[in-house]
């Protein structure tokens, strides 16, 4: 009986610590992004470079268009057309031969009327952490407007602050999707773990110079 009680107390302590960690990490990230998020194009401060964070075009199980994807494309196109950014870096996953987020996004942005010469691709943005670190170390940027949904932008802005990047977020229209916010809370904890463990992006590579 005593052993069972100790196990129960241990599990309770672990659960309590997990809840506190999730709350603290979430609060710190939200605080860092305060005043740096914009949902209207005309309110976004000018930045020479925008960073479009990648996602898949289709929802795998159903084969439907991913609304996160389409809304990010619309947001990035509107930002470029309004002259709020001069160049756009698309950072996404290209880990398989048959899957290339940056190429798919560029193709759809060009279809939306964006000048292809203003677009640069980062094929090694496997995670938001990788995208933000590579923005500084590979593309040499210390100021950026991140384009994604609000919750994603909050996390990206926090990572940017850790990397010495002054970042704003332009919020693509949000999507109601089951389980996304729960995963986001865990992803925020993972950010702190990454820095605690001194993580590096999966790939770095040669530097890319953007024109003035």
Task: Walk me through the structure.
- With 212 residues, this protein is α/β, with parallel strands linked by helices.
- The chain has six helices and eight strands; from the N terminus they run αββββαβαβαβαβα.
- It has one domain (2-196): Rossmann fold.
- It has a six-stranded parallel β-sheet with strand order 1-8-7-2-5-6. Strands 3-4 form a two-stranded antiparallel sheet.
- A hairpin with a 4-residue loop joins strand 3 and strand 4 (64-65).
- The longest helix is centred in the N-terminal third of the chain and has 32 residues, at 2-33.
- The mean pLDDT is 93.
Shape: globular
Strand order of the largest sheet: 1-8-7-2-5-6
What composes the largest sheet? 6 strands, parallel
The fraction of residues in strands falls at 15-25%
In CATH terms, what is the architecture? Answer: 3-Layer(aba) Sandwich
Poorly predicted segments: none
Helix content: 40-55%
Domain count: the total is 1
Separation of the first and last Cα atoms = 71 Å
| Number of H/I helices | 6
Determine and state the CATH class.
Answer: Alpha Beta
Question: How many strands?
Answer: 8
What is the typical, i.e. mean, pLDDT? 93
Order of helices and strands: HEEEEHEHEHEHEH
The CATH superfamily label reads HUPs
Which features would summarize this protein structure in a list?
8 strands, Rossmann fold, six-stranded parallel beta sheet, alpha/beta, 212 residues, 6 helices
């Amino acid at each position: 009986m005593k052993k069972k009680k100790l196990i129960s107390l241990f599990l309770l302590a672990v659960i309590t610590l997990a809840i506190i960690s999730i709350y603290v990490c979430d609060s710190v990230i939200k605080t860092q992004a305060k005043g740096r998020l914009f949902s209207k194009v005309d309110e976004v401060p000018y930045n020479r470079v925008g960073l479009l964070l990648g996602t898949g075009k289709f929802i795998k199980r159903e084969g439907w268009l991913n609304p996160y994807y389409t809304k990010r494309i619309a947001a990035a196109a509107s930002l470029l057309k309004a002259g709020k950014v001069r160049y756009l870096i698309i950072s996404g996953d290209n880990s398989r031969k048959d899957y290339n987020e940056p190429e798919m996004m560029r193709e759809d942005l060009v279809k939306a009327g964006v000048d292809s010469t203003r677009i640069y691709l980062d094929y090694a943005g496997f995670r938001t952490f990788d995208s933000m670190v590579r923005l500084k170390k590979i593309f040499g940027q210390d100021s950026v407007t991140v384009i994604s949904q609000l919750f994603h932008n909050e996390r990206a802005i926090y990572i940017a602050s850790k990397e010495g990047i002054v970042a704003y977020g332009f919020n693509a229209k949000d999507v109601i999707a089951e389980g996304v916010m729960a995963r986001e809370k865990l992803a925020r904890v993972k950010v702190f773990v990454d820095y605690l463990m001194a993580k590096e992006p999966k790939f770095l590579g040669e530097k890319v110079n953007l024109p003035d």
